[in-house]
Structures are given as structure tokens and as C-alpha cells.
Batch of 2 targets.
Target 1
Amino acid sequence: MSIKRFAPALLVAAIAAAPLAQAETTVTIGTVNNGDMVRMQGLSKAFEESNPDIKLKWVVLEENVLRQRLTTDIATQGGQFDVMTIGMYEAPIWGEKGWLVPMDNLPADYNVDDIFPAIRDGLSHDNTLYALPFYGESSMTYYRKDLFEAKGLTMPAQPTWDEVKTFAKAIHDPKAGQYGICLRGKAGWGENMALFTTMGNTFGARWFDEQWKSEFTGEAWTNALTFYVDLLGNYGPPGASSNGFNENLALFNSGKCGMWIDATVAGAFVTDKSQSKVADNVGFTLAPQQVTTKGAGWLWSWGLAIPKSTDAAEAAKKFVLWATSTDYSDLVAKTSGIASIPPGTRKSTYENAEYIAAAPFATKTLESMKAADAKDSTLKPKPYIGVQFAAIPEFQSIASQVGKFVSGALAGSMTVEEALKNAEKVSNREMKRARYFK
């Protein structure tokens, strides 16, 4: 009797609750395990509190794994992600293919005109934005001012790679756990090849000549890779071929790197006393040059994009707008300090005297980004756009393979000559197969 009596009431309650359950939308976000993105995940509770009908699901992955997962999902229209963390390489290519939701009709208070033109252009195709920038970056040289002072060394405004090597030798003290320099060695087109390509640029190299043929066995790349292997082999930490951005950041913050050339976004972390033992002794200058200054520092932006395969486009866009807004920057400033706000995207950030005063790396970040020219980054003419990458669909596959050869040369599993010969063979084979030349 009791079951019959209360069944209608339970049924009514279930029906009343059903619309609430259906109203909640889950937004799955694929992002990289860099510090700024980890912070974004932590602060996203504020977004969920303001949007109780949206639940965020995070997939945070190491850079190489993330890129593989996202590329597979977008190419197959798998629909596993509603928000993707991608960059200036993917956004225009995927946007042109029709794989991404255009980021148009943005609210007036988002102030899209505040975004640096180079960042907007890099995330656009045919003047349409396909990702909103979370942060922007170039690369620069970090160095220990205390170690330089102890050795009587003076860091130039933009050192040559030869000068960097001299400095690394002078401050290298492995018995004390102090290595002259840390650089990316982990294989990956966005890991070691980002750094090594900028080095190659300054040695006079380019990914492809005007006929889209590679020049890896030429003098410029040979000089660059020989230098890279010698520099890290003699004055870098053990196991350098396994170190990417995050590994080198940890080494630098623990006081084990005398110098480090990497992304300008690391400035907020190496000067944060809560995580860096050397926060008070970090100096900043431009990324090294060699025979040319062209292409010395890269240009990149991690942006948030929405794949066409999503079934939660409206909720996803609401999150993307929040995470890339000035309101989000204000939240970071409130919780982590103004120096920690996502850098490199908005003009207003660098017009803020309070930010400039709190962030000793800010002016050098801006100088580095302004110096990076995606259209003119090599000594000889090139047929592609991009500083540390070539903005063509085939590049990701080619550079991932070349990155393994470069890492192999660094690890000693093959010679410099073998690595470059393999790189040229792979590059020309793939470009010929893609009909860039016969």
C-alpha cells in the first residue's frame, strides 16, 4: 500500500528534477600541463560558481601527448573535446579546413582590439579568429646574475651563441650541481624543435628553400646542430635529451642552471619566490643571435579553440571568453599576484604601470615579441610563414620526426651527420609526397 501511495509523488518529483539534470552541460577541456594552464584549472571553480549549469571536465596532458590527442580528435571529428588548447600553428590551418568554430561576434566588453595584432593574426585565417589567446610569448635568455657577478661576466643586450657558450663554460660547476646552461632536448616539434629552429635561424638555416626542398645537410644546419650538441653535451645537465620546458623550468628554479633560453612566459615562475630558489638573482635578455638576429626569438600563443564537432558550443564559448578575458587576469592578480597574469596578449597589460613594476621580465618579454617576425625570420628567403615552425599542414609530422633525430644526436645514439642526413631524407620524402615539388 505504501508503495502505491508514494509512487505518484516520487514520479512527480522525478519529472520536476529532470529539466534541472538535462540543463547541466559538461564542457571537456584539453590543455597542456604548463603552469598557467594548471592555474586556470584551479581558478575555474569561480566560473562554475557563476555558471551552475556548466560543469567543466579537464584533460591535462604533457605537450607532445596533448598535440597528438587533439590532432587525432579534430581530424576524425571525434568530439572528445569541447575546448582545445592550440596555438598559432594549428589555429589558421584547422580554421581553413573548417574544423573550428569561428570566434566572431565577441561581446564589446571583451575588447578584441586590445589584443596584439601579431597574436590576433597568428590565430586567424582570412581575418577570422579561430582561437582566443590565453597567453602569448617569444623566447629569451634567463641567466643567474649572482653567478655572472662572481665570475666577472657581463651579459650583452643580445648575446651571440658563441658568447653564451663562453659564459656556460665559465659558470659550469657540475660537482656543485651547477650546470652552465639548460636547453630543450626532448623530442617534439613544439619541444626541442622550437628551440633548435630558432638556433638554426640565427646560424643562417631555414626549413625549406624557395623550391620547398630541405637543406639539413648544408653548412648552416650542420654548424647549428654541431654547436647545440657540443654546448649541451659539455655544459648542460645529465640527460638533457629528455628535458622539455617543464623539466628545465624545474631545474632552473632549483638553482641548477646558470642560463636557460626558453619561453618568455617562464618569467613569472622563475621570479616567484614561492617556487624559485633563485627568484632574486634572475636576469633577462634577448634570445641569442649568431650570424643574424633574424628568427632568434620565436613567436607563439597558446589559445583556446572550439572544435566544430562539439555538442556544447555555447557553453564552451562562454568558458573561452571567461578564461581569456581581462576579468580572468584580474582574478589571477588577486589570487596569485599581478606579475602572474597571463602575459603577451593584451596591450593594456603593458600599459599598466603596476604590472610593469611588479614583473621585472615584462619589458623584455614585450621587446622579444616585437622583434619576432613570422614573415621574415631567416637569413635567406623562405616560402613559409613562421619563426619556429613552417605554417603548412605537413610540418607537424616532419618536424616530429626530425626532432627525434636531433634528440638522438644529443643523446649520442647517432652522429650529427647521421641525424641531419635522416632529417633531410624524411623532409624531402614527405614534401615530395605532398607534391610541393616533383
Target 2
Amino acid sequence: MSNTDWAHIHAHPKFKELHRRKSRFLWTLMAISVAYYFLLPVGAGYFPELFKQKLWGPMNFGLVFAFSEFLVAWGIAAIYARHANRNFDALAAELQKQFEGSTP
């Protein structure tokens, strides 16, 4: 069983900074992904001729845009992973080192 004092860690300024940075970054990514997601139904509703525009063969702009949402989701996941590895993990490692083996 762990003897870690989680309340003390949660109250620590470095933990609060980590949580603030991570929350701000995640809310930004979420806003971008939600905005891009809703571009498809809004765009199809307000610009149906654009979304019907044939690009090649049976593929039209609407289908390509819908498929692009997968790429955007993967891109956002890659951006988060890269940013977390560079920034959040360093702060978390500092906290872990500071509180490693601490007892309540």
C-alpha cells in the first residue's frame, strides 16, 4: 500500500502549475477539434453546392472533408503526445522525484 500524501501533492504549487498548463492546453485542443467537427454539418447545411462538388470519380468535397476529420483527430492526438512528452512529463518527473518515498 502506498504511503504517499496525495493531499500534500495536490496542494503543491508545482502540481497546480502542471494541472493549469495541462488543462489550458487540453481545452484549446478540444475547442479546435469540436470546431472542426461541426464544420461538416454546418458547412453541408449552408454550402450544399460546395459539399456536392466532385473532386475525382465518386468522391466529392463533403466526403473528403468527412475523411479529413480522422486526420485532424490523429493530428491532435500526435500534437498532444508530443507536447506532453516535452512539457508535462518533465514537470511530473520533478514532482515525482520531490515526493518519492515521502510519508504522510
